[in-house]
Amino acid sequence: MPVLIRHLAVVWRWLVAVLALAAIVLSLVQLQRQEQGLRITDHTVGETPVRVFRPAHGDKAPVVVIAHGFAGSQQLMQPFALTLAKNGYVAVTFDFTGHGRNPVPMRGDVDEPTRITGVLVAETGRVADFARALPESDGRIAILGHSMASDIVIRYAQAHPEVEATVAVSVFSPAATGERPGNLLIIIGSLEPSMLINEGLRIINLSVGGGAEPGRSYGDFKDGSARRLALSSGVEHIGVLYSQDSMREALTWVNEAFGRHGDGWIDRRPIWMALLFAGLIALAWPLSKLLPQAAPEPMGASLTWKQLLPAALLPAVLTPLILWKAPTEFLIILLGDYLTLHFLVYGLLTAAIVLYLQRHTRTGLFQPRPRPLPAPHHGPGTRLDRFLASGTVVPSAGKLAIAALAVSAYNIFAFGWPLNAYAFSFMPIEPRLHLIAAVAVGSVIYFVTAEWMSHGKHARRGAYALVKLCFLLSLAIAVALNLKKLFFLIIIVPAILLLFLAFGLISNWSYRATNHPLPGALANAAVFAWAIGITFPMVIR
């Protein structure tokens, strides 16, 4: 029976691997197929990276300049770009100063955004001039922006009446008036904060005099007075960029503005991206079985619930209190510097508490408890002779290094390539490399302590989930204490939760294979440092 069970386990692993690979290949083929019929080229306007999407064949057409939001990049706006380009428009995306692959940091005080706003509006203007000068352009232009960029595109359109339609996604703009910009569509996710929905209604009411309703159009495209607030169902601040409701509303609006009619093609990447990343996560399970066992028995703190609760809760409460009034602006990545310190302080507090709780144990953080060796015997054919002669046994430290490198590489590159291609900028440019290293100082300390306290031979079921939830609780407390400075963390918490879930699974599979929490901890630390160092904008204050 044990032999049969082992054989069934091997068959099951192979089946999961085959199904995961099939899901990955199918989703990549479908994502690539969405670009068929288009000609996509990369350009640079000054230092600004620009990508142009246009039909491979056809007449000249209006251009739509598409701008991303805070901590975004042009990849985030691809669903709009593909939807518009497949319907005959010339769509142009770009990376704002300080974002994505743009090597130039923003300069100024984000609490006094006038100067930064002016820089971003001017940059949008340079990209718009480039777009209108393209050979495929018929000279007409519309503009679309998300979140931070909703205010930027509204200000640009106000100063340039030749803009025939403006689409503001997740809008917040004190600059909007009842008359300008012309032909304004506002799109907001139905699950976004109510303040954004109220802001959208406020802007529409400037034109209609009150009583505006979502889903209803006002005014006339001919005189530029058209106004509409659309709610994309079931999505939040990031999901609104992938919603078919958003794509359909934007396409219909620019079609009305330009008097055009496309074939109605809508980007449908969410289902294929979900299948792709599900396949990558699933594939990690059979691959984890190839990792070397680094310890003879499961390592970790093995905390009881009586020990675990204070070790998990105290850092969650103390970290935001310690950092509340502390200066945190030591890196040029906005919010990334705070997250680095939050990781660091949280990890150090956790380590101190866990070490205090384990002060009577003999196990160290990185090596299993030493076991007495049998008396040496050097006769021919002994186990020691076979051990030395085989040349295949790797010391525990070496196995840990191999496992950590393998899991880190999988997390960063297997996930990183499709993320960079279809979701957001994930491959670093040279000015960001040292930022990734700086963030890693904090993330390594946090994840090593978090993984250690969550595991062990007698670890409690649910310990891992509790530890991660406490960290999210800690971020929530930090935001509540300093809402103005850390407000954007509210928006990215769903992304952090998804990362915890996906890479937490992989971390636990690597733990079961290696018997040690360090490979998963270092891999998680690497991917979080990588993501934070690349995603958040560079700002010189």
Automatic annotation (TrEMBL):
GO terms for molecular function: aminopeptidase activity. Keywords: Aminopeptidase, Hydrolase, Membrane, Protease, Transmembrane, Transmembrane helix. Pfam families: Hydrolase_4. It comes from the Bacteria. Residues 62-170 form the Serine aminopeptidase S33 domain. The chain crosses the membrane at residues 12-31, 270-288, 308-326, 338-357, 400-421, 433-450, 462-481, 486-509, 521-540. The keyword Transmembrane helix applies. InterPro entries: AB_hydrolase_fold (IPR029058), FrsA_esterase (IPR050261), Hydrolase_4 (IPR022742). This is Serine aminopeptidase S33 family. It comes from Rhodopseudomonas faecalis. The lineage of its organism: Bacteria, Pseudomonadati, Pseudomonadota, Alphaproteobacteria, Hyphomicrobiales.
